[in-house]
Amino acid sequence: MKKILLLILLLAMCVLEQQPAGSETQRVIGFIPLDTRPYTYDIPIQLGKLFGAKILYPDMDILTFFREKPKSTALLRSWLLQTAKKCDALVVSAEQLLYGGLIQSREVKISISDRNEIIKTLRTIKKAHPNLKIYASNVLMRNSISAFDNESVFWWKKIQEYSKAYYRAYAKGDIEAKAELKNLTAEIPEKVLNTFLHARKFGYGDKLAFIQLVKDGIIDQLIICQEDSEAEGIQRFEQEELLSMIQKEGLTDKIYMANGAGEAGAELVMRALCPDGSDTKIVWLGENINFSAMYEDRPFVENLKSHMSALNIRETSNADNVICILPPKRKQSDYVMGFSEGYEEYSSEEFEVMSQRISDLVKNGKHVFLLDIEAANGGNPKLLTAVAKKIPILELYGYSAWDTASNSLGTLLAQLLACKNKNSEENKSYTSERILNDCVYQSIVRQKVSEKLKNAGVNVWNIEDTKTAEQLISDTFQENEELLHNIFGDNVPKFQTKLRWPRLFEIKVSL
After folding, report:
1. Which of 34, 302, 386, 471 would be a feasible disulfide site paired with 93, CB 3.0-4.6 Å?
2. Separation between Cα atoms, residue 400 and residue 394, nearest integer Å
3. Would you give the end-to-end CA distance of the chain in angstroms?
4. Do 203 and 135 share a domain, yes or no?
5. Number of domains the chain is built from
6. Concatenated DSSP letters for 162-211?
7. Does some domain include residue 487?
8. In tens digits, what is the pLDDT along the chain, a chain of 511 residues?
9. Are residues 336 and 469 in the same domain?
10. Does the pTM exceed 0.90?
11. Residues 218 and 344 in one domain
Protein backbone atom coordinates (compact mmCIF):
# COMPACT_ATOMS: atom_id res chain seq x y z
CA MET A 1 0.00 0.00 0.00
CA LYS A 2 2.86 2.35 0.85
CA LYS A 3 4.48 1.64 -2.53
CA ILE A 4 1.22 2.54 -4.33
CA LEU A 5 0.87 5.81 -2.39
CA LEU A 6 4.52 6.66 -3.13
CA LEU A 7 3.96 5.99 -6.84
CA ILE A 8 0.88 8.25 -6.88
CA LEU A 9 2.85 10.99 -5.14
CA LEU A 10 5.71 10.71 -7.65
CA LEU A 11 3.30 10.88 -10.57
CA ALA A 12 1.62 13.95 -9.08
CA MET A 13 5.00 15.64 -8.65
CA CYS A 14 5.85 14.92 -12.29
CA VAL A 15 2.60 16.54 -13.44
CA LEU A 16 3.27 19.64 -11.31
CA GLU A 17 6.81 19.92 -12.70
CA GLN A 18 5.41 19.98 -16.24
CA GLN A 19 3.19 23.00 -15.42
CA PRO A 20 4.79 26.45 -15.53
CA ALA A 21 5.25 28.11 -12.17
CA GLY A 22 2.36 30.38 -11.28
CA SER A 23 0.20 29.09 -14.15
CA GLU A 24 -3.52 29.54 -13.84
CA THR A 25 -6.52 28.82 -15.98
CA GLN A 26 -7.06 31.49 -18.58
CA ARG A 27 -10.33 33.32 -18.01
CA VAL A 28 -12.72 33.74 -20.92
CA ILE A 29 -14.89 36.84 -21.37
CA GLY A 30 -17.63 37.22 -23.97
CA PHE A 31 -17.81 40.86 -25.04
CA ILE A 32 -20.48 42.80 -26.96
CA PRO A 33 -19.20 46.35 -27.61
CA LEU A 34 -21.13 49.59 -27.65
CA ASP A 35 -20.25 49.99 -31.35
CA THR A 36 -17.30 49.50 -33.73
CA ARG A 37 -15.23 52.55 -32.83
CA PRO A 38 -11.62 51.75 -31.76
CA TYR A 39 -12.14 52.90 -28.16
CA THR A 40 -15.35 50.93 -27.69
CA TYR A 41 -14.45 47.84 -29.74
CA ASP A 42 -10.64 47.44 -29.73
CA ILE A 43 -9.58 48.92 -26.39
CA PRO A 44 -11.60 46.57 -24.12
CA ILE A 45 -10.24 43.62 -26.11
CA GLN A 46 -6.66 44.91 -25.86
CA LEU A 47 -6.90 45.45 -22.12
CA GLY A 48 -8.48 42.05 -21.54
CA LYS A 49 -5.62 40.41 -23.44
CA LEU A 50 -3.08 42.55 -21.58
CA PHE A 51 -4.50 41.10 -18.36
CA GLY A 52 -4.00 37.61 -19.78
CA ALA A 53 -7.61 36.72 -20.56
CA LYS A 54 -9.20 35.32 -23.69
CA ILE A 55 -11.75 37.75 -25.09
CA LEU A 56 -14.46 36.44 -27.41
CA TYR A 57 -16.17 39.14 -29.45
CA PRO A 58 -18.45 39.35 -32.48
CA ASP A 59 -16.94 40.00 -35.88
CA MET A 60 -17.63 43.47 -37.25
CA ASP A 61 -19.57 41.90 -40.12
CA ILE A 62 -22.55 41.22 -37.87
CA LEU A 63 -22.42 44.65 -36.20
CA THR A 64 -23.93 47.88 -37.52
CA PHE A 65 -21.43 50.35 -39.00
CA PHE A 66 -21.56 54.09 -38.30
CA ARG A 67 -24.90 55.39 -39.68
CA GLU A 68 -26.06 52.13 -41.23
CA LYS A 69 -29.64 51.01 -40.87
CA PRO A 70 -29.56 48.69 -37.84
CA LYS A 71 -28.84 45.10 -38.78
CA SER A 72 -31.08 42.33 -37.50
CA THR A 73 -30.13 41.41 -33.93
CA ALA A 74 -30.77 37.73 -34.70
CA LEU A 75 -27.14 37.01 -35.63
CA LEU A 76 -25.79 38.83 -32.60
CA ARG A 77 -28.21 37.09 -30.25
CA SER A 78 -27.27 33.74 -31.77
CA TRP A 79 -23.59 34.56 -31.30
CA LEU A 80 -24.26 35.50 -27.68
CA LEU A 81 -26.15 32.28 -26.94
CA GLN A 82 -23.36 30.15 -28.41
CA THR A 83 -20.56 32.15 -26.84
CA ALA A 84 -22.04 32.09 -23.34
CA LYS A 85 -21.32 28.36 -23.12
CA LYS A 86 -17.58 29.04 -23.34
CA CYS A 87 -17.33 31.99 -20.95
CA ASP A 88 -16.67 32.79 -17.33
CA ALA A 89 -18.45 36.13 -17.76
CA LEU A 90 -20.28 38.24 -20.31
CA VAL A 91 -19.95 42.01 -20.85
CA VAL A 92 -22.89 43.38 -22.82
CA SER A 93 -23.77 46.81 -24.19
CA ALA A 94 -27.53 47.32 -24.13
CA GLU A 95 -27.32 49.77 -27.05
CA GLN A 96 -25.57 47.24 -29.28
CA LEU A 97 -27.84 44.38 -28.30
CA LEU A 98 -31.07 46.36 -28.72
CA TYR A 99 -30.33 48.86 -31.49
CA GLY A 100 -27.03 48.08 -33.18
CA GLY A 101 -25.02 50.84 -31.51
CA LEU A 102 -25.02 54.21 -29.79
CA ILE A 103 -25.95 56.31 -32.82
CA GLN A 104 -28.82 53.95 -33.67
CA SER A 105 -30.14 54.21 -30.11
CA ARG A 106 -30.79 57.91 -30.72
CA GLU A 107 -33.27 57.06 -33.49
CA VAL A 108 -35.30 54.16 -32.14
CA LYS A 109 -36.44 51.68 -34.81
CA ILE A 110 -37.73 48.85 -32.61
CA SER A 111 -40.98 48.23 -30.74
CA ILE A 112 -41.54 47.44 -27.08
CA SER A 113 -42.28 43.82 -28.00
CA ASP A 114 -38.96 43.69 -29.93
CA ARG A 115 -37.14 45.00 -26.87
CA ASN A 116 -38.77 42.47 -24.56
CA GLU A 117 -37.91 39.61 -26.92
CA ILE A 118 -34.27 40.67 -27.18
CA ILE A 119 -33.92 41.06 -23.42
CA LYS A 120 -35.26 37.52 -22.97
CA THR A 121 -31.94 36.36 -24.45
CA LEU A 122 -30.16 37.37 -21.25
CA ARG A 123 -32.72 35.57 -19.12
CA THR A 124 -32.32 32.44 -21.25
CA ILE A 125 -28.54 32.54 -20.86
CA LYS A 126 -28.66 33.02 -17.09
CA LYS A 127 -31.13 30.18 -16.73
CA ALA A 128 -28.89 27.84 -18.74
CA HIS A 129 -25.69 29.03 -17.01
CA PRO A 130 -26.63 30.22 -13.49
CA ASN A 131 -22.98 30.65 -12.43
CA LEU A 132 -22.15 32.86 -15.39
CA LYS A 133 -21.54 36.49 -14.40
CA ILE A 134 -23.21 39.09 -16.62
CA TYR A 135 -22.06 42.70 -16.65
CA ALA A 136 -23.94 45.33 -18.65
CA SER A 137 -23.84 48.98 -19.61
CA ASN A 138 -26.80 51.14 -20.59
CA VAL A 139 -26.48 54.73 -21.84
CA LEU A 140 -28.74 57.51 -20.63
CA MET A 141 -29.26 59.58 -23.77
CA ARG A 142 -27.26 62.75 -24.33
CA ASN A 143 -28.84 66.20 -24.33
CA SER A 144 -29.03 66.39 -28.09
CA ILE A 145 -29.09 64.53 -31.40
CA SER A 146 -26.23 63.10 -33.49
CA ALA A 147 -24.32 65.46 -35.81
CA PHE A 148 -23.33 64.41 -39.33
CA ASP A 149 -23.21 67.64 -41.35
CA ASN A 150 -23.59 71.40 -41.01
CA GLU A 151 -27.40 71.19 -40.91
CA SER A 152 -27.53 68.54 -38.19
CA VAL A 153 -24.85 70.43 -36.24
CA PHE A 154 -27.20 73.45 -36.29
CA TRP A 155 -30.12 71.42 -34.92
CA TRP A 156 -27.76 69.68 -32.48
CA LYS A 157 -27.13 73.10 -30.92
CA LYS A 158 -30.85 73.97 -30.92
CA ILE A 159 -31.80 70.69 -29.21
CA GLN A 160 -29.14 71.41 -26.57
CA GLU A 161 -30.79 74.79 -25.96
CA TYR A 162 -34.18 73.04 -25.79
CA SER A 163 -32.89 70.59 -23.18
CA LYS A 164 -31.49 73.35 -20.98
CA ALA A 165 -34.63 75.48 -21.30
CA TYR A 166 -36.78 72.44 -20.45
CA TYR A 167 -34.84 71.94 -17.22
CA ARG A 168 -35.02 75.58 -16.18
CA ALA A 169 -38.71 75.77 -17.05
CA TYR A 170 -39.85 72.68 -15.14
CA ALA A 171 -37.20 72.29 -12.42
CA LYS A 172 -36.92 75.97 -11.52
CA GLY A 173 -40.22 77.37 -12.78
CA ASP A 174 -38.35 79.94 -14.87
CA ILE A 175 -40.94 81.96 -16.83
CA GLU A 176 -38.38 83.19 -19.38
CA ALA A 177 -37.25 79.60 -19.95
CA LYS A 178 -40.86 78.55 -20.66
CA ALA A 179 -41.10 81.27 -23.31
CA GLU A 180 -37.77 80.16 -24.79
CA LEU A 181 -38.98 76.55 -24.80
CA LYS A 182 -42.10 77.57 -26.69
CA ASN A 183 -40.04 79.42 -29.29
CA LEU A 184 -37.61 76.52 -29.73
CA THR A 185 -40.49 74.05 -30.11
CA ALA A 186 -41.82 76.17 -32.95
CA GLU A 187 -38.37 76.60 -34.55
CA ILE A 188 -37.07 73.01 -34.43
CA PRO A 189 -38.50 70.76 -37.18
CA GLU A 190 -41.20 68.52 -35.74
CA LYS A 191 -39.52 65.35 -36.99
CA VAL A 192 -36.18 66.29 -35.39
CA LEU A 193 -37.71 67.13 -32.01
CA ASN A 194 -40.11 64.17 -31.96
CA THR A 195 -37.29 61.73 -32.81
CA PHE A 196 -35.24 63.12 -29.94
CA LEU A 197 -38.09 62.98 -27.41
CA HIS A 198 -39.24 59.50 -28.50
CA ALA A 199 -35.70 58.12 -28.19
CA ARG A 200 -35.45 59.60 -24.67
CA LYS A 201 -38.74 58.08 -23.59
CA PHE A 202 -38.02 54.69 -25.12
CA GLY A 203 -34.48 54.65 -23.74
CA TYR A 204 -35.80 55.36 -20.27
CA GLY A 205 -37.81 52.15 -20.62
CA ASP A 206 -34.54 50.33 -21.34
CA LYS A 207 -33.18 51.49 -18.00
CA LEU A 208 -36.25 50.20 -16.17
CA ALA A 209 -35.92 46.83 -17.91
CA PHE A 210 -32.22 46.49 -17.10
CA ILE A 211 -32.71 47.54 -13.47
CA GLN A 212 -35.29 44.77 -13.26
CA LEU A 213 -32.72 42.32 -14.67
CA VAL A 214 -30.37 43.30 -11.85
CA LYS A 215 -33.15 42.93 -9.29
CA ASP A 216 -33.95 39.46 -10.66
CA GLY A 217 -30.33 38.35 -10.47
CA ILE A 218 -29.86 38.10 -14.24
CA ILE A 219 -27.32 40.94 -14.43
CA ASP A 220 -24.65 41.02 -11.72
CA GLN A 221 -23.50 44.60 -12.29
CA LEU A 222 -24.93 47.45 -14.36
CA ILE A 223 -23.36 50.79 -15.26
CA ILE A 224 -25.82 53.47 -16.37
CA CYS A 225 -23.71 55.92 -18.35
CA GLN A 226 -24.79 59.51 -18.82
CA GLU A 227 -23.42 60.60 -22.17
CA ASP A 228 -22.86 64.22 -23.23
CA SER A 229 -24.81 66.54 -20.95
CA GLU A 230 -24.72 69.70 -18.84
CA ALA A 231 -25.77 70.54 -15.29
CA GLU A 232 -28.99 72.04 -16.62
CA GLY A 233 -30.56 69.44 -18.88
CA ILE A 234 -33.57 67.27 -19.49
CA GLN A 235 -31.63 64.19 -18.32
CA ARG A 236 -31.74 65.39 -14.70
CA PHE A 237 -35.39 64.34 -14.32
CA GLU A 238 -34.60 60.82 -15.56
CA GLN A 239 -31.55 60.54 -13.31
CA GLU A 240 -33.50 61.48 -10.19
CA GLU A 241 -36.21 58.91 -10.87
CA LEU A 242 -33.71 56.15 -11.64
CA LEU A 243 -31.57 56.88 -8.58
CA SER A 244 -34.65 56.84 -6.36
CA MET A 245 -35.65 53.47 -7.79
CA ILE A 246 -32.16 52.00 -7.39
CA GLN A 247 -32.01 53.11 -3.76
CA LYS A 248 -35.53 51.85 -3.03
CA GLU A 249 -34.66 48.42 -4.42
CA GLY A 250 -31.40 48.28 -2.45
CA LEU A 251 -29.26 47.96 -5.58
CA THR A 252 -26.69 50.71 -5.00
CA ASP A 253 -23.90 48.12 -4.72
CA LYS A 254 -24.80 46.63 -8.12
CA ILE A 255 -25.84 49.64 -10.22
CA TYR A 256 -23.59 52.63 -10.76
CA MET A 257 -24.41 55.92 -12.48
CA ALA A 258 -21.80 58.35 -13.78
CA ASN A 259 -20.94 60.54 -16.74
CA GLY A 260 -19.37 58.76 -19.68
CA ALA A 261 -20.26 56.02 -22.20
CA GLY A 262 -17.36 54.97 -24.42
CA GLU A 263 -15.23 53.76 -21.50
CA ALA A 264 -17.83 51.38 -20.01
CA GLY A 265 -16.85 48.33 -22.07
CA ALA A 266 -13.23 48.51 -20.92
CA GLU A 267 -14.30 49.10 -17.33
CA LEU A 268 -16.67 46.14 -17.23
CA VAL A 269 -14.23 43.76 -18.91
CA MET A 270 -11.73 44.58 -16.18
CA ARG A 271 -14.36 44.40 -13.45
CA ALA A 272 -15.15 40.87 -14.65
CA LEU A 273 -11.47 39.91 -14.67
CA CYS A 274 -10.33 41.75 -11.54
CA PRO A 275 -13.26 41.94 -9.10
CA ASP A 276 -10.90 42.59 -6.17
CA GLY A 277 -9.89 45.89 -7.73
CA SER A 278 -6.83 47.72 -6.48
CA ASP A 279 -5.55 50.33 -4.04
CA THR A 280 -4.62 53.62 -5.68
CA LYS A 281 -3.31 57.02 -4.61
CA ILE A 282 -4.73 60.14 -6.29
CA VAL A 283 -2.37 63.07 -6.91
CA TRP A 284 -3.75 66.33 -8.28
CA LEU A 285 -1.23 68.24 -10.40
CA GLY A 286 -3.29 71.44 -10.20
CA GLU A 287 -5.35 73.15 -7.53
CA ASN A 288 -8.68 73.30 -9.40
CA ILE A 289 -10.14 70.08 -8.02
CA ASN A 290 -13.83 71.00 -7.82
CA PHE A 291 -14.39 71.76 -11.52
CA SER A 292 -17.13 70.33 -13.72
CA ALA A 293 -15.89 69.04 -17.07
CA MET A 294 -17.37 69.90 -20.43
CA TYR A 295 -20.12 67.51 -21.60
CA GLU A 296 -20.70 66.43 -17.98
CA ASP A 297 -23.42 67.40 -15.53
CA ARG A 298 -21.71 67.12 -12.15
CA PRO A 299 -18.33 67.93 -10.52
CA PHE A 300 -15.56 65.67 -11.80
CA VAL A 301 -14.71 64.49 -8.27
CA GLU A 302 -18.16 62.85 -8.14
CA ASN A 303 -17.44 60.97 -11.37
CA LEU A 304 -14.00 60.00 -10.05
CA LYS A 305 -15.62 58.44 -6.98
CA SER A 306 -18.34 56.66 -9.00
CA HIS A 307 -15.98 55.18 -11.59
CA MET A 308 -13.53 54.01 -8.93
CA SER A 309 -16.36 52.42 -6.93
CA ALA A 310 -17.64 50.60 -10.01
CA LEU A 311 -14.20 48.99 -10.44
CA ASN A 312 -13.59 48.48 -6.71
CA ILE A 313 -10.57 50.78 -6.87
CA ARG A 314 -9.90 52.21 -3.43
CA GLU A 315 -8.12 55.49 -2.74
CA THR A 316 -5.22 54.80 -0.39
CA SER A 317 -2.48 57.23 0.54
CA ASN A 318 0.41 54.72 0.48
CA ALA A 319 -0.56 52.68 -2.61
CA ASP A 320 2.02 51.73 -5.24
CA ASN A 321 -0.36 52.73 -8.02
CA VAL A 322 -0.63 56.50 -8.39
CA ILE A 323 -2.96 58.40 -10.72
CA CYS A 324 -1.68 61.91 -11.44
CA ILE A 325 -4.55 64.12 -12.63
CA LEU A 326 -4.08 67.31 -14.63
CA PRO A 327 -7.24 69.41 -14.13
CA PRO A 328 -7.96 72.66 -15.99
CA LYS A 329 -6.29 75.69 -14.44
CA ARG A 330 -9.63 77.51 -14.50
CA LYS A 331 -12.30 76.33 -16.92
CA GLN A 332 -12.00 73.22 -19.07
CA SER A 333 -12.03 73.79 -22.81
CA ASP A 334 -12.19 71.64 -25.93
CA TYR A 335 -9.68 70.82 -28.68
CA VAL A 336 -12.56 70.22 -31.11
CA MET A 337 -14.94 73.11 -30.40
CA GLY A 338 -12.20 75.62 -29.60
CA PHE A 339 -10.85 77.22 -26.46
CA SER A 340 -13.68 78.93 -24.65
CA GLU A 341 -13.89 82.06 -22.57
CA GLY A 342 -12.44 81.47 -19.13
CA TYR A 343 -9.75 79.04 -20.30
CA GLU A 344 -6.30 79.77 -18.88
CA GLU A 345 -3.20 77.86 -19.89
CA TYR A 346 -0.62 76.58 -17.41
CA SER A 347 2.78 78.26 -17.62
CA SER A 348 5.98 76.44 -18.54
CA GLU A 349 7.11 76.92 -14.91
CA GLU A 350 3.97 75.16 -13.67
CA PHE A 351 4.51 72.26 -16.06
CA GLU A 352 8.09 72.07 -14.79
CA VAL A 353 6.85 71.64 -11.21
CA MET A 354 4.28 69.04 -12.29
CA SER A 355 6.80 67.03 -14.29
CA GLN A 356 9.24 67.05 -11.39
CA ARG A 357 6.52 65.73 -9.12
CA ILE A 358 5.75 62.92 -11.55
CA SER A 359 9.46 62.14 -11.93
CA ASP A 360 9.94 61.94 -8.16
CA LEU A 361 7.05 59.49 -7.85
CA VAL A 362 8.47 57.28 -10.60
CA LYS A 363 11.98 57.34 -9.12
CA ASN A 364 10.50 56.36 -5.75
CA GLY A 365 9.14 53.19 -7.32
CA LYS A 366 5.52 54.26 -7.79
CA HIS A 367 3.44 53.03 -10.75
CA VAL A 368 2.38 56.37 -12.22
CA PHE A 369 -0.65 56.73 -14.50
CA LEU A 370 -1.22 60.16 -16.07
CA LEU A 371 -4.77 61.42 -16.60
CA ASP A 372 -4.86 64.64 -18.63
CA ILE A 373 -8.28 66.29 -18.43
CA GLU A 374 -7.19 69.90 -18.75
CA ALA A 375 -9.30 70.07 -21.92
CA ALA A 376 -11.81 67.79 -23.62
CA ASN A 377 -10.91 65.79 -26.72
CA GLY A 378 -7.15 65.71 -26.34
CA GLY A 379 -4.11 65.91 -24.10
CA ASN A 380 -1.65 68.76 -23.61
CA PRO A 381 1.65 67.93 -25.40
CA LYS A 382 3.48 70.51 -23.26
CA LEU A 383 3.02 68.37 -20.15
CA LEU A 384 4.25 65.19 -21.87
CA THR A 385 7.25 67.07 -23.27
CA ALA A 386 8.07 68.40 -19.80
CA VAL A 387 7.78 64.92 -18.28
CA ALA A 388 9.95 63.42 -21.03
CA LYS A 389 12.79 65.77 -20.05
CA LYS A 390 12.81 64.17 -16.60
CA ILE A 391 12.20 60.48 -17.33
CA PRO A 392 11.72 58.22 -20.37
CA ILE A 393 8.01 58.72 -21.12
CA LEU A 394 7.30 54.98 -21.12
CA GLU A 395 8.28 54.76 -17.48
CA LEU A 396 4.70 55.94 -17.04
CA TYR A 397 2.45 52.93 -16.50
CA GLY A 398 -0.43 54.52 -18.40
CA TYR A 399 -1.83 57.61 -20.08
CA SER A 400 -5.29 58.80 -21.10
CA ALA A 401 -6.69 62.04 -22.52
CA TRP A 402 -9.31 61.20 -25.14
CA ASP A 403 -12.83 62.66 -25.51
CA THR A 404 -14.59 63.63 -22.24
CA ALA A 405 -13.04 63.63 -18.78
CA SER A 406 -14.95 60.50 -17.72
CA ASN A 407 -14.13 58.70 -20.97
CA SER A 408 -10.45 59.29 -20.22
CA LEU A 409 -10.84 58.39 -16.55
CA GLY A 410 -12.61 55.08 -17.10
CA THR A 411 -10.15 53.95 -19.76
CA LEU A 412 -7.17 54.73 -17.53
CA LEU A 413 -8.70 52.93 -14.54
CA ALA A 414 -9.19 49.88 -16.75
CA GLN A 415 -5.52 49.98 -17.82
CA LEU A 416 -4.47 50.28 -14.18
CA LEU A 417 -6.15 46.94 -13.47
CA ALA A 418 -5.15 45.32 -16.76
CA CYS A 419 -1.38 45.79 -16.37
CA LYS A 420 -1.37 43.95 -13.01
CA ASN A 421 1.31 46.18 -11.45
CA LYS A 422 3.77 45.44 -14.28
CA ASN A 423 4.99 47.83 -16.94
CA SER A 424 5.52 45.05 -19.45
CA GLU A 425 6.48 45.59 -23.09
CA GLU A 426 2.82 44.97 -23.98
CA ASN A 427 1.72 47.66 -21.54
CA LYS A 428 4.31 50.08 -22.91
CA SER A 429 3.03 49.46 -26.43
CA TYR A 430 -0.52 50.17 -25.31
CA THR A 431 0.59 53.37 -23.54
CA SER A 432 2.47 54.44 -26.68
CA GLU A 433 -0.71 54.07 -28.72
CA ARG A 434 -2.63 56.16 -26.21
CA ILE A 435 -0.02 58.94 -26.30
CA LEU A 436 -0.01 58.94 -30.11
CA ASN A 437 -3.80 58.96 -30.28
CA ASP A 438 -4.96 60.90 -27.23
CA CYS A 439 -2.33 63.61 -27.30
CA VAL A 440 -0.50 63.96 -30.63
CA TYR A 441 -3.45 63.09 -32.87
CA GLN A 442 -6.43 64.42 -30.94
CA SER A 443 -4.96 67.75 -29.89
CA ILE A 444 -2.69 68.57 -32.87
CA VAL A 445 -2.92 66.36 -35.96
CA ARG A 446 -6.71 66.18 -36.05
CA GLN A 447 -7.08 69.95 -35.86
CA LYS A 448 -4.72 70.50 -38.79
CA VAL A 449 -6.29 67.76 -40.91
CA SER A 450 -9.78 69.06 -40.15
CA GLU A 451 -8.80 72.55 -41.30
CA LYS A 452 -7.29 71.21 -44.53
CA LEU A 453 -10.36 69.12 -45.30
CA LYS A 454 -12.78 71.95 -44.53
CA ASN A 455 -10.82 74.28 -46.82
CA ALA A 456 -11.22 71.66 -49.55
CA GLY A 457 -15.00 71.62 -49.01
CA VAL A 458 -15.09 68.24 -47.27
CA ASN A 459 -17.79 67.39 -44.71
CA VAL A 460 -15.55 66.33 -41.81
CA TRP A 461 -18.56 64.81 -40.01
CA ASN A 462 -19.02 62.21 -42.77
CA ILE A 463 -15.96 61.94 -45.03
CA GLU A 464 -16.54 60.35 -48.44
CA ASP A 465 -12.88 59.97 -49.49
CA THR A 466 -11.34 58.35 -46.41
CA LYS A 467 -8.16 57.31 -48.27
CA THR A 468 -7.24 60.93 -48.93
CA ALA A 469 -8.04 61.81 -45.31
CA GLU A 470 -5.85 58.95 -44.05
CA GLN A 471 -2.96 60.14 -46.21
CA LEU A 472 -3.38 63.66 -44.80
CA ILE A 473 -3.29 62.21 -41.29
CA SER A 474 -0.09 60.29 -42.06
CA ASP A 475 1.55 63.34 -43.63
CA THR A 476 0.56 65.56 -40.70
CA PHE A 477 2.03 63.12 -38.20
CA GLN A 478 5.30 63.35 -40.14
CA GLU A 479 5.13 67.14 -39.99
CA ASN A 480 5.12 66.78 -36.18
CA GLU A 481 8.15 64.50 -36.04
CA GLU A 482 9.99 66.91 -33.75
CA LEU A 483 7.20 66.67 -31.16
CA LEU A 484 7.28 62.87 -31.36
CA HIS A 485 11.02 62.94 -30.62
CA ASN A 486 10.48 65.41 -27.78
CA ILE A 487 8.06 62.94 -26.19
CA PHE A 488 9.59 59.55 -27.06
CA GLY A 489 13.26 60.55 -27.40
CA ASP A 490 15.19 58.29 -29.76
CA ASN A 491 12.55 55.54 -29.42
CA VAL A 492 9.69 56.94 -31.48
CA PRO A 493 7.55 53.86 -32.18
CA LYS A 494 6.63 52.83 -35.70
CA PHE A 495 2.89 53.03 -36.09
CA GLN A 496 0.01 53.03 -38.55
CA THR A 497 -3.20 55.05 -38.56
CA LYS A 498 -6.55 54.21 -40.09
CA LEU A 499 -10.01 55.76 -39.91
CA ARG A 500 -12.50 53.25 -38.56
CA TRP A 501 -15.49 55.47 -39.30
CA PRO A 502 -15.66 58.19 -41.99
CA ARG A 503 -15.01 61.05 -39.59
CA LEU A 504 -11.93 62.28 -37.77
CA PHE A 505 -12.91 61.21 -34.24
CA GLU A 506 -12.58 57.48 -34.90
CA ILE A 507 -8.95 56.81 -35.73
CA LYS A 508 -7.14 53.56 -34.97
CA VAL A 509 -3.45 53.94 -34.05
CA SER A 510 -1.55 50.66 -34.16
CA LEU A 511 2.10 49.99 -33.33
Report:
1. 34
2. 13
3. 60
4. yes
5. 2
6. HHHHHHHHHHS--HHHHHHHHHHHHHS-HHHHHHHHHHHHHHHHHHHHHH
7. yes
8. 444 444 434 333 333 333 333 346 899 999 999 999 999 999 999 999 999 999 999 999 999 999 999 998 899 999 999 999 999 999 999 999 999 999 999 999 999 999 999 999 999 999 999 999 999 999 999 999 999 998 999 999 999 999 999 999 999 999 999 999 999 999 999 999 999 999 999 999 999 999 999 999 999 999 999 999 999 999 999 999 999 999 999 999 999 999 999 999 999 999 999 999 999 999 999 999 999 999 999 999 999 999 999 999 999 999 999 999 999 999 999 998 876 677 899 999 999 999 999 999 999 999 999 999 999 999 999 999 999 999 999 999 999 999 999 999 999 999 999 999 999 999 999 999 999 999 999 999 999 999 999 999 999 999 999 999 999 999 999 999 999 999 999 999 999 999 999 999 999 999 9
9. yes
10. yes
11. no
At position 86, the amino acid (one-letter code) is K
Do 318 and 248 belong together in one domain?
no
Same-domain check for residues 239 and 293: no
Which of residues 273, 300, 315 is at a domain's end?
Answer: 273
Strand segments, DSSP code E, in 352-426 are 367-372, 375-376, 398-400
Query: Are residues 319 and 228 part of one domain?
Result: no
Rounded to whole angstroms, how far apart are CA atoms 354 and 360?
A: 10
Same domain, 282 and 363: yes
